[in-house]
Amino acid sequence: MKFTTNKLTMKKDQPKNSGNQKKDDMSKNTTKLEGAMTTNQGLKVNDTNNSLKAGERGASLLEDFILREKITHFDHERIPERIVHARGSGAHGYFELYESQEDITKAEIFTDTSRKTPVFVRFSTVAGSKGSADLARDVRGFATKFYTEEGIFDLVGNNMPIFFIQDAMKFPDLIHSVKPEPHREIPQAASAHDTFYDFVSHATETLHNHIWLMSDRAIPRSFRMMEGFGIHTFRMINKEGKSHFVRFHWKPMLGVKSITWDEAVKIHGADSDFHRRDLWNAIDAGIYPEWELGLQVIPEEDEHKFDFDLLDATKLIPEEMVPVKIIGKMTLNRNPDNFFAETEQVAFHPGHLVPGIDFTNDPLLQGRLFSYTDTQLSRLGSPNFHEIPINRPVNETHNNQRDAHMRMTVNKGKTAYFPNSISGGCPHLAKIAQGGFDSHEERIDAKKVRGRSESFSDHFSQPALFYRSLEEWEKEHVAGGYAFEIGKCTYKHIKERMLWLIAQIDEDLAEKVAKSLGMKVPDDIERPINQAIGADADVEKHQPGPKKMYLEKSPALSQTHLKSEGIRSRQIAVLVADGFNGEQLETMKKKLEAEDAMVKIVANHGGTVKCGNDNELEVDAALLTTESVVFDAIYIPGGRKSIDALSKEAKALKFINEAFKHCKAIAAYKEGEELLDATYVKDFKDDKAILINEEPKAFIDAIAQHRNWDREKEAAKIPV
Ligand code: HDE
């Protein structure tokens, strides 16, 4: 008898040699939806709608193994969500190196320019649950898995260059304070509550990351428009064994762009999957997001030349002091086939390294090296999580580890120990010259202490540098962020303590926040705050001293000064009703699409919309189902009937007023101007991003500016 394999479970999805090793590797486990339905045991199924019963109206029978298998599998479909970074979105891509970095590292991904290394990236928010909204004010995770030929290298970073705390020991406290308050599980995915500010105001090391959290960096326009940072100082080791300190940076080709807090609040309701959808749609449309990888390299001998400690993860190294050297580019060009299998099951770990990269003694990094494997044991359920296709390296793995839950590998042979003679000594050890990993030798001569270096003590100079480096509009947003968040706290002493701490960063800032809160900045606070909190020693030690001024400003910290590339993938709403001018729309659409912008027809009804000459266009979104906050700009073509109809639609007027309030570019042609006259825009027609009867080029340039922040103060008064 001829044995036939089952198509559904055995069919390989992708051909081998697609040019991407990880794609080929994943194809071994990827199935297509075809072939007859079977049980998990391979039995063909001919009814999946009805359970087995004693008579059609009778009781169901325990014997029904098909029902039991289906329901049992369903009952166990969920795994624990990540304790932090639960909400995430992933994509595949590749990394290419511009120039060999052999002076500083022997890692092949950073020395061999002929390689196209497959990567999988997962972006995330930190505090919220898996189903929380994308636009929470939060740090974003930016974790990259490089499938190199020497093994996995994970760069598990964030979109801010520093972290809240200096020592891993405090991480559970930080996270417990920001997560929903335990007695009533409120608020979800929000830092604006008592427990977080109780913690922040008593742990001054958090203030630097905290001011970034108050800034626009915490409400990005898109994952594709964020920087990424490895944060900790790592080491790179070259062939000669020489070590350099290194900090990793991802620089987005689309620039760093954010939205306003008012938009964030509204996007929560309009599209809580805004970032996930945006990433998916851009890749699906072939507009692949790209980041350049940069390194800040510090020779070992310069370790102590800075006004801060390189091992302190709450400090950034200003780019003006150590420039970021761009070494390569990452492109994300493929959406996952299955969210659970890839984005949910991917397991990152800062300790997944390749030869040529190593750690430093940063006490935050050291703690992470324990945490990430540990967490996978409860989340993915087994030490075999490395066998899950998305986690599997593209090179072969050989060792004597065996068994445990869900072991997939069938290890042949009699031995599972080293040294052995029975299996010819295999797997044998790799010589260092042949790619074997060896930890960098570092002289350590110290007493065993539970403590922290004095060099970690300055908690105020860098938040002040960050604030000084921002443009006026960014500073306003920071003040607004603080006012909103502290305004949500209910304890007066916590608010006062926060105001006092902000004043140590910048007095004007504290005054602004205090004014919004209807409070006064206290002249001083009681120290030690509370004998009972047991943090007195820490609190006493970290009272603000004179701030260090190693730089007046670091322009690289302001979004304004970061490289930005045109209007690729920007979402442009064309607002129309039946009778719009089709020619005007076509002219603008062609120009916008030539720049890779995504043009969407928004009409006062769904289905199709007619232009003046009765041609019909598919509507992308009816006003009923969308909001202006999900678009970057609006174009209003003319057409008497269309403008008359839209002028009577309250939602159309709100759509425009809101986009205007959020400082977006709006272009109108011919009769389109009359629609603007029915909105608050009529008083702002000389605004540089309001374009009436202008060439498409002017509109494109205004969109490329992202927002006209000059109008923000006035536009904020618009009551929408
Ligand atoms: Fe994490 N972190 N972390 N973290 N982290 C996790 O690992 C942890 C820290 C970061 O998309 C967890 O698999 C400790 C800094 C990202 O899957 C957990 C400490 C930075 C992601 C964990 C830190 C990060 C995580 C939860 C202090 C930026 C998401 C699930 C010592 C450099 C990765 C998991 C993904 C995830 C622990 C601090 C980034 C529990 C103990 C600093 C991007 O292991």
Automatic annotation (TrEMBL):
Taxonomy of the source species: Bacteria, Pseudomonadati, Bacteroidota, Flavobacteriia, Flavobacteriales
UniProt family annotation: Belongs to the catalase family. HPII subfamily.
Originating organism: Salegentibacter echinorum
EC number(s) from the headed UniProt entry: 1.11.1.6
Cross-link (3'-histidyl-3-tyrosine (His-Tyr)): 349-372
Known cofactor(s): heme
Catalysed reactions, as listed in the record: 2 H2O2 = O2 + 2 H2O
Name of the protein: Catalase
GO cellular component: cytosol
Annotated function: Decomposes hydrogen peroxide into water and oxygen; serves to protect cells from the toxic effects of hydrogen peroxide.
Alphabetical keyword list: Heme, Hydrogen peroxide, Iron, Metal-binding, Oxidoreductase, Peroxidase
Bias (Basic and acidic residues) ranges: 10-27
